[in-house]
Amino acid sequence: MDVNWQPGACLAPVQGLAQAMAQGAGDLPEGNLRLAAFLAGQVIPVLLSARMIVGHAGRAHDAREREAHPPLDGGVASERDQDLREGVEQALRWFDDLHATIAESGHTDAAACHLLLAADLRIRAGGIEVGIEAGTLPAAPGKLRHTPTGSRALRELLQGDRELGAPGTAEECVVTPRAPGAVGAGGILRAAERRYESALAACTAARAPHGRAAALLRLAHVHRIQGRGDTCRTRLASALDAAYEAKDGACAALLQVHQVLDLIDADSGEGTEAAVAKAVAVWGRTVGSTSWVHGLSWLVRNRADSWYAEGYARSGDRAEAFARLLSEDRAPSSAGPSAVAVPTTDTAVQARHHGAALVLIDLEQREHLARIRHDDQRGALDLTRCLGVVRTAKAFHTQATELGDPEVAAAARARLELAVHVGELVVRETGTGTETGTGTETGTETGTGTETGTGTGTWIADPMRDVLAGLRSDLAACPAQESLFHSRRAREAGLGDEADRLAQQALDRARSIPDDVLRCHVRCTALTDLGDRARARAEAERMESRLPALQAAALWVRLGDPARARRCLPHVGDAVENSWQLLSLRAETAGGEGTPTREAGEYALRGLAAYEEQRNRLARDTLRASFADDPVAARLHHVAVLARLASGEEDAPAVAFGQADRVRTGFLGAVRALDAAAADPAARAAVRHWLATEVRWAAEFEDHVAALRAERGGAPGAATAVPERSPSPSWPSDPSLPPTSHPTTAVIRRRVDTAALRLGEAEAVVRRRAPSALAAAERDVVPDPAAVAGALPDGAVLLAYHLFDDALIGWAMTRDTLRCEPLRGRPGGRALTHQVVGAARRFRDGCADPLHEGHGQDDAALLAAWLLEPFAEVLDTARRVVVVPPAALALLPFHTLPWDGDVLGAHRPVSYLPAAGLLPRLRERGDPRPWRDLDALLVGAPATDARHRLPELPGTAAEIAEIARLLPRTTVLTGARAGRAEVLATAPGHEVVHLATHGVIDELAPNRSRLPLAGDDALDLADLLTAAHAPRLLVLSACDTGRGRATAGGDVLGLTRAALVTGARNAIVSLWPVRDDLGALVMTRMYRHLAGDGQLTEGGTVDVGTALHLAQQEVRALGHAAREAEYGRLTRRTGGASGTADGRRSWAAGPRDSSPARLGPALDDRHPYHWAPFIHVGV
Question: How far apart are CA 1037 and CA 1055, in angstroms?
């Protein structure tokens, strides 16, 4: 009996009836003794088993309903539910067959209760159509209508359960979100409340504490749903007293768990979980039931899932930690289960953090496989573990597909192959007389395993064959998907011909995909990328009737046919993962073929409100950033911008400007978190540590995703011309953990669990010291264009852009004017985004290559025509330009684009901002003090261990020494002193932080980016957040420090973002590899202008943008010989070596990264490679 006993099958009413019978009967006659034995020995165990069977079947049925999106032709296979129907019917017959024995006893109350419970079983069967007549709840016999206990109380409880929803809802603490103003919701709850009050009165009059506890538990749940928290807590406390009075440990444990869940929901009572879990576990191991405790753990995990689905990651993580404590599962600490809430797989999946989800899912599969291999030595087949291997392989493939990474997709192929092998083993074993069950031995309470026997039949093998068919289809799709992902990577790199070759390869490989729907999606995507929308539409039209309505609508939107998509929407129903997904489709189809209408804009704004509400529930910056990397949300922003512009209202350009900038301001949530703790140094330190620990958590997963990429090379035939990424650094993500070349599953689990535990602990400290920091992101607002304009310096023009699909929109803002210029691509052709991004990447790569003749002048002319010429009138008179690029153009050096016979940055400073909304904030924090009066930390020329094979950087030593001469209040760390501990201890409090070293950057893993220091040390993103305390100037004088990963949410994850989160007012970063000697020339000249008598701003101090501009133009004007001569003078003045032994600076010295050095002098002394890698981020 204990095997099946869990919440949702609670028998408090039956127990109360038995107690009342015993109290009122005195010495029971022999017949009643037999009845009591029958109830205890057969009725209750069968009822528990039947409820378990019906419950599992109901959940399986609901899951199939959610997944089975009906195709447009209306065909839905029904045979898949046959096994569920047969199982439910058998369970109902088992319980029905007991009625005759009860009726023979002559105890009418017991017979009535049996009928009530039988009806309740049919209600629990829900949507599963059974062959046994369902009927309704029977009326109690007339002579029992006035009985205060027995069937009357049970009838009221069951009827109340029916009013409330699915039976077991109250006991399982199920809180289903109701739409605001849902029809009848209040009346239903009031009806249930009346039933429970009636049952409570009956049980109170009969002095039946079991029944009182059951009724009070249900009343508390009604109040929980109504949002009456105080009343709910009062009812639960009364129920707990009744349970203790009845000596019902199971009910008391359930009520204590409910109390903890309510505390989690209210975001209070942290720490209560551990005490309650310990008490419940002790009860379960001694006088209680371990099965019931495992059921409580399952109940808590279900509640965690509901919180995750609604975006409440913090509540979900606390519930998951509580569930681990209850079940004593493996926890993120070798010391045993922890009560600290840590990010889980569900958190990662719901937040679209694909890296974390991939690693955690992969670990789960590895652990299932290890258990299978262990059990295989005993000749046993562990069905649960086998299903786990299959489930995790499918989940891994889903995450890899959403990530769009070709190497990870190749790793998914290996896991699908393994899952197919395991699934075939299950089919083979279950079809040969081996009975696979849920007990390792007969009579055991928990675990999974196999028993040898007969009669298993096809109830395992047939569903597994269906699953295997899906896995084989996914496996067949992998080669085409890998080619498609390689194609997109090549296109982003500006390699159009190679991208087209790979897209055609994907199209050819898609022919081998057996699943028609999946094949259609892959082929349509490849054809669209090739610019052949006519063939893509023909493909979609052939398959439209086979596609689920939601997929068909989304496909037609992607193919540029909103009218066809609109016809699919009425068939979608409720099969939508989130509300903004459907609202996005409605928004994109409301405008027809032309400009979005006001209705489209209203749909888009409603979708954005729902999306942002859920995003803001993710208190962690890392999760908010990954959640924002959502193409659906990006489309909502896009439609909202277009609808604003099309409104024709006088302020339409300004409102559209604010809407476009809104997508770029997500990183300000982390900035506001620091603001929330500004008044308390300890609280601010806690928030900094929390943000840094978040980055380390994300970097830990990026380390392991890099290992997944390295498992198998790129797909056969993949591009070889795609630029190589920076080599993976050998430093671990967490400096306290040793590097591991080939970590075992146990080591990986320990590392990710340790990172998660540290993040949970850091967040717990913030919750105590600065709770408002966790809600800082909820204060997101649309940027105010008037405030942005007011913050612009005199004579400055701000250029902001919105780029999506076939639309490029630009704004030119001055203090007094705002001009908007939209540009649309060719209808039906290749997306304008592909053209602009490809040209930008090719132009940037040309600037980064000193041997590149012309450095992409054709692309430069196109980019200038797209981005600058529409605003020629304001640019010609601008004394300064501030560029706010879309994330996809974050690497484009606007200051080197051709303009007026030269380049844009030749005669005016060009500064950059990730979001226009940041401008007023930076201007408010102005500091008029001269630069020579500021404390500066200068770090350079670190003595990196030779094992890392990074070349020495004599230029950085000269750079640091010269800056120290110019700024008298400096602390210098070079050579062996330039270690991580020294930098972290010294940096806080310095208003200028200058770091000159190598840069190790990975766009695919931005949190792993770092600046190598002395020995094995390195300064990573997390360290930057800890070390830099709102400096006035933060300089990252290394290679590629401005690179990062652009997201669909408008963010660019990397060192620049981290610099702004620290509160830095000005940052200097690089867009490509920096030559050591030329970097020293530009940097030292910049500081000469800052410290000397250069051009002044209104505040009387030299501004950073102007100082960098002057330095760059001066170095640009120097020829090769002049540069060498100046560098020689610089190194001699600072006491350093200029290069090789003969005293000449060798061109083979190499850049400040770990890529191969570029040899030979450039063909053009004025090439941007020499003078333009650095940009100013700020005002």
Answer: 12
